[in-house]
Amino acid sequence: MDAFSSFFGSQSSSRNRWSYDSLKSFSHISPVVQAHLKQVYLSLCCALIASAAGAYLHLLWNIGGLLTTFACMGCMAWLLSTPPHQEASAVFEGASIGPLIDLAIEIDPSILVSAFGGTALAFGCFSAAALLARRREYLYLGGLLSSGLSILLWLHFASAIFGGSAAIFKFELYFGLLVFVGFTIVDTQDIIEKAHHGDLDYVNHALLLFTDFAAVFVRILTIVVS
To answer: Where are the transmembrane segments (predicted)?
Structure first.
């Protein structure tokens, strides 16, 4: 009986040790890429703070809407061609979703906290999965997710012309959430792969993850509000 307990005790401790070691091991990511990822996530945090400032500006002066949406798209296009800071784009993005945030605050301010917490948890978990996985393991999902994004765009276009329904809206909402959560994994691994090949543009890489985070947040907040 002692031998039996000893055997399974050693197997259990070995399994726990393997799990802990695997969770803290980033040996498959070079030190240069690890340093780059730190810059990316630091820039992402700055972008989220700037986006929160933009949402707050909307609450003060009601500036969010179609104009700030176009301004955000323009800043993103500018960022892809030049290397400035990404805070301007994040401010306009925050102002653009300001009306939705304002609605959530009017209903129940705790909704906003729950939606942001859920988004941060989902984003953190799927980013960690991408960081701990083998290189290029999930990149094949990019084609499937791009097809899903194309389906969402055509559905939105058709709804704008022929009129939508509650069922189509819910499908767009939940399917879009699934697509952008998947993009969190693919984009994270894509950033790692680009960094391994010498692309260390942390501003544009942070903007890519910020776009994923904002898309997930908007959908989770809409689900909670509705």
So the answer is: 40-57, 63-81, 111-132, 139-162, 168-186, 206-225
- The burial class, CB within 10 Å (0-12 / 13-18 / 19+), for 223 is middle
Q: Phi/psi class of residue 134: alpha, beta or left (left: φ > 0; alpha: ψ in -120 to 50)?
A: beta
Tokens of 13: 């401790």
Report, as ranges of residue numbers, the positions in the chain whose pLDDT lies below 50.
1-18, 20
Q: What is the C-alpha to C-alpha distance for residues 209 and 45, in angstroms, rounded to an integer?
A: 10
pLDDT in tens, 170-197: 999 999 999 999 999 999 999 999 999 9
Cα–Cα distance measured from residue 47 to residue 86, given in angstroms and rounded to the nearest whole number:
7
Residue 184 CA to residue 213 CA, distance in Å, equals: 8
189-214 burial, b for 16+ CB within 10 Å, e for fewer?
A: bbbbebbeeeeebbbbbbbbbbbbbb
3 state DSSP class of 29: coil
Q: What's the one-letter identity of residue 24?
A: K
Token pair for residue 116?
A: 């942001």
Question: In whole angstroms, what is the distance from residue 112 CA to residue 221 CA?
Answer: 7
Residue 215 contacts residue 176 (beta carbons within 8 Å): yes
**Angle at CA of residue 94, ends 138 and 162, nearest 5°:** 75
- Please report, for the chain, the start and end positions of each structural domain, with discontinuous segments joined by +: 3-225
For the beta carbon of residue 155, count every other beta carbon within 10 angstroms.
17
